[in-house]
Write a structure and sequence with these properties.
heterodimer, A: alpha/beta, Rossmann fold, 8-stranded mixed sheet, 11 helices, 10 strands, B: alpha/beta, 7-stranded mixed sheet, 6-stranded mixed sheet, 12 helices, globular
Chain lengths: ~325, ~400
């Protein structure tokens, strides 16, 4: 009897023994993404190891590469906070000259991508380097102790967006880097979530097999930053999808008129209220007492969907 | 046969890069060194240089891409100046700490504000503590030669540090001079192929580069950079000797000019050394016992050579196109610290001169000489002398 190949490869590049928090959402991204990459490389080049990783400074770098240890079983480089995309460009150029067949994977958090690293990312995408850039989005500067980034959602508590007498918490809408990336008209842009590992796996694999740059913005809750129990990471991420907070989509060649959605309700009506997502998280505790702020958050989410070409209803 | 061509300093730098055959070049245009990436892109476009040329969106990304390429194991080159170098500042430390032998050409230019595109050395001097080897060229030939030597030294296994070669904005970058272009075969012999044993991103031999260093390891890693820079002294001298044997041009850590019986030795770097040598000739004709010394290698600082020089003269007068505010000239500080524990030492004078492209004239050098002569008889009056200031507009 033929043995069915498991849907996710058993090869590991993100080794156990890394120092991420229990329940870390981004650690799940690291593990799944490298597995997907490996499978893509195997299918494309016949060599599952044919990739190298460039990492921005951040939690995932700090917990995986403390000298003299490493959690990485793939060639890996970290340089600084804002330049993972530029470093990846250099590695890719060098590989071309060395005649290596393979692809470069770049990782950065939302701070290192949406904020300080945005220019380097834009340069890398515009120059069409053969790099998959994954932004692991935990919606704040978690490595430095939970400060807001431009990817922090409206209303969230962080240490630099504290709710108070004159503050509802973060007072700006979330920046969607995936749409900025799409504006570069690169072959492939997608969002994903750790709550849908098969979708995430498929998208990373697809991105890795494309010739040219690809960008993925992947949602990964942060246990200490979101004030959630370690065992709730996946549940919280799942609720973000089910309440319409986190859209799952793909954009090819920058064609925003043909966005492919995943897990989008056919009638555009999300069944679960946002409050269910918010109430699991300490970072939104104050918001539950503020219906006006929740209404504003809902309006922003509807607007985000409108930009994506969808009219939605949020209960 | 070596070929002689009349060219600008920038072209000389681009030719050096072509001869060194880097596999990756990442650069962003900045005055006065824009012609370097322009010329290199021509070489690449014409198939004269088989390299990936990454046209980055900033100098920060230029050096970051160079770090990525060098860490992947290939010879890497870039060029910049002034604000561009300052924008790279953060990554310069990282390139040195990761022991990546990137070579960079710098058209030495002043820093803002006020914005100024002309020559001084504030840009490279401000990067003196990053762990990069620093060469300063007197003319376009030296710009070419010292870039080749920079590759040789940087890639030596006893060193493995990045290196920069400075050549003065406009005075060299935009001025044409005859430059001998060495034979490619000889350059190939001189440099060899770069095959690093420490830096590669090979899927068949995965290694982790750019780790986090806890207090238990950080200091030792920095010491290794220190040790590599100390090793560079000997390696540079060897490279100079080999270069002379192969190409016939002699280089020294410090080049002395008419210093043997000099009472006053003026020390400088870069193209100012040319002016200074002419000034020395003129004063010698007038019977003044003056000599000149040119610092070719500023990092590692030629401490022993400066000590030897100090034994010869009553005054060492440092002429420098940079300033460390609240202290004085950076070169002065290095010369002074080299001599601090010597039993007998000359008077050391600190002259800030020619900032932001102000011409350094014989009148200015006369002024400095006058101060030096007076110092022998009457002592030193000021810690730092600014020469050629337009006092009427202060």
């Amino acid at each position: 009897m033929a043995v069915r190949k498991p849907p996710i490869t058993t090869r590991e590049y993100w080794a156990p023994g890394h120092a991420a928090c229990a329940g870390c959402g981004c650690a799940i991204i690291m593990r799944l993404a490298t597995k997907a990459f490996s499978e893509a490389m195997e299918e494309k080049y016949g060599d599952p190891d044919a990739f190298a990783i460039a990492h921005a400074t951040g939690c995932m770098e700090v917990v995986s590469a403390v000298f003299p240890y490493t959690a990485w079983k793939a060639p890996w480089i970290h340089v600084a906070f804002e330049n993972a995309a530029a470093v990846a460009s250099g590695v890719e150029a060098a590989w071309k000259k060395l005649g290596y067949k393979g692809k470069i994977l770049a990782f950065g958090g939302d701070g290192g991508t949406a904020d300080i690293g945005l220019q380097a990312l834009s340069g890398m995408l515009e120059r069409r380097h053969n790099v998959v850039y994954i932004m692991y989005d935990n919606e704040a500067y978690m490595n430095t102790g939970i400060q807001r980034s431009s990817s922090t959602p409206y209303g969230a508590w962080t240490t630099t967006s504290p709710p108070g007498k004159y503050s509802i918490g973060e007072d700006k809408p979330k920046k969607w880097v995936a749409l900025i990336a799409a504006a570069h008209q690169i072959p492939y842009v997608a969002t994903a979530s750790i709550a849908d590992p098969y979708d995430l796996y498929r998208k990373v694999k697809k991105a890795a097999k494309i010739d040219g740059p690809a960008f993925l913005q992947i949602h990964g809750p942060c246990v200490p930053g979101w004030r959630i129990p370690p065992e709730k990471t996946v549940e919280v991420a799942k609720l973000a999808i089910e309440t319409g907070v986190w859209p799952l989509f793909e954009i090819e060649n920058g064609d925003i008129r043909n966005i492919k959605f995943q897990r989008f309700p056919k009638d555009g009506k999300f069944k679960k209220p946002i409050e269910e997502y918010l109430k699991l998280q300490g970072r939104f505790k104050h918001l539950l007492k503020n219906p006006e702020a929740i209404q504003e958050l809902k309006e922003q989410i509807k607007e985000m969907w409108r930009v994506l070409g969808k009219e939605v209803e949020l209960p | 046969m070596p070929m002689k061509k009349v060219m600008k300093g920038n072209e000389a730098a681009a030719w050096a890069a072509k001869l060194a055959k880097p596999k990756v070049i990442a650069a962003f245009p900045i005055t006065p060194s824009t012609l370097v990436p322009e010329k290199i892109s021509e070489f690449v476009a014409n198939g004269e240089l088989d390299a990936e040329f990454i046209k980055v969106e900033s100098e920060h990304s230029a050096i970051s891409a160079c770090v990525g390429a060098s860490a992947a194991g290939v010879r890497t080159f870039t060029a910049t100046a002034s604000q561009g170098l300052a924008l790279m500042h953060e990554i310069l430390f990282i390139a040195a700490g990761m022991r990546l032998p990137i070579v960079m050409a710098i058209g030495n230019r002043a820093l803002s504000a006020p914005i100024n595109i002309w020559n001084d050395w504030q840009d490279t001097i401000s990067e003196r503590d990053t762990g990069w080897i620093q060469f300063y060229a007197e003319n376009n030939q030296e710009a070419l030669d010292l870039i080749l030597i920079a590759f040789k030294v940087a890639e030596d296994e006893r060193v493995l540090l990045p290196a920069m070669t400075g050549f003065d904005a406009f005075i060299l970058t935009h001025t044409v001079e005859p430059v001998e272009i060495p034979d490619q075969e000889l350059v190939d012999e001189f440099l060899g192929e770069y095959k690093p044993k420490h830096a590669y991103l090979d899927p068949k031999r995965p290694i982790t580069q750019g780790t986090l260093g806890f207090p238990a390891h950080y200091m030792e890693a920095r010491y290794k950079v220190w040790e590599a820079m100390e090793n560079a002294r000997e390696v540079i001298k060897e490279a100079f000797e080999e270069f002379e044997k192969k190409f016939g041009r002699k280089y020294q850590m410090v080049e002395e000019y008419k210093t043997d019986d000099a009472e006053i030795i003026m020390i400088t770097m870069g193209s100012l050394a040319g002016t200074l040598k002419e000034f020395v000739d003129k004063k010698r004709e007038e019977g003044v016992k003056i000599g000149a010394a040119k610092i070719t290698v500023y990092r590692p600082f030629p401490i022993e050579e400066i000590r030897a020089l100090a034994k010869k003269a009553k005054v060492l007068a440092i002429l420098e196109k940079d300033v460390s505010f609240g202290s004085g000239g950076a070169v002065f500080a290095d010369v002074a610290r080299s001599l601090i524990n010597e039993k007998e030492k000359p008077i050391i004078l600190d002259f800030i001169i020619g900032l932001g492209g102000r011409d350094v004239t014989f009148e200015q050098l006369e002024e400095a000489l006058g101060i030096a002569e007076k110092a022998i008889k009457e002592g030193v009056e000021e810690d730092v002398y600014w020469i050629g200031l337009r006092k009427e507009i202060l």
